[in-house]
Specification:
7 helices, eight-stranded mixed sheet, alpha/beta, two-stranded antiparallel ribbon, about 25% strand, Spore Coat Polysaccharide Biosynthesis Protein SpsA, Chain A
Length: about 230
């Protein structure tokens, strides 16, 4: 059954899904790799669409896969599919261009975080709605972290109490994210990095253990185990 998104919602969710996912091994583009019989992208979109605040979902797919991705997602939710770019930042920009100006909140979400609960989508959106220009879900770092040199020699132990492991969806005021992309700031690995470089504050809210990033084959095994007990 097709999920009907809330026409009065104030959130657009961008899903950059054009990456190859080389660390996951050879095969289809990462977002289209199967998890429990369905592509990661299907799992991710299904959960995002279940969040009551979401008005629009835009997926940036590999250019050659746009028709197939549109057909794949049609039974799941009303989704706009656009061609992605060579880099993640290019895909986010392409998806952002499809969002109407009147949608005030934009979330950027990794398809690889396929089990992210709708409640986390709502939590991030609510924090943006309350006045924060940028919001990221994050978890405390539980491992001991060492700083090392190029030869692998330990230089020191990092205070993990001030460290966080960042997840998605990352949320932004529409104008803030658009301005960061217009400025052409290098985002490194996430969009919050662009906003940081623009000098704006980024708020952390509690993340979710379910929002793990599926990057390696072992992650798929863990995700399937989580689905089996969900």
């Amino acid at each position: 059954m097709t999920a009907q998104l809330n026409a009065r919602g104030d959130v657009a969710v961008l899903v950059p899904a054009a990456g190859s996912g080389v660390r996951l091994g050879p095969g289809a583009p990462k977002a289209l790799r199967p998890l429990a019989g369905e592509p990661l992208l299907v799992h991710a979109v299904r959960r995002v669409a279940a969040a009551p605040s979401v008005r629009l979902i835009v997926v940036a797919a590999p250019a050659a896969e746009v028709p197939a991705v549109r057909e794949l997602l049609a039974p799941i939710a009303p989704v706009t599919v656009v061609p992605g770019g060579a880099q993640r930042q290019d895909s986010v920009a392409a998806a952002l261009a499809a969002v109407p100006a009147e949608v005030p909140i934009v979330l950027v979400h990794d398809a690889a975080r396929a089990l992210t609960p709708p409640e986390l989508v709502e939590s991030v959106a609510a924090a943006v709605r309350s006045g924060h220009p940028a919001v990221i879900p994050a978890l405390p770092v539980v491992d001991t972290v060492k700083e090392v040199d190029a030869a692998g020699t330990v230089l020191g132990t990092v205070d993990r109490s001030v460290l966080r492991s960042v997840q998605t969806p990352q949320g932004f005021r529409h104008d803030v994210l658009a301005a960061a992309h217009r400025a052409g700031l290098d985002s490194h690995t996430d969009d919050a990095g662009m906003v940081e470089k623009a000098g704006l504050p980024v708020l952390c809210v509690p993340g979710s253990e379910l929002a793990l990033k599926i990057t390696r084959p072992l992650d798929l095994v863990l995700a399937e185990a989580l689905l089996a007990v969900a």
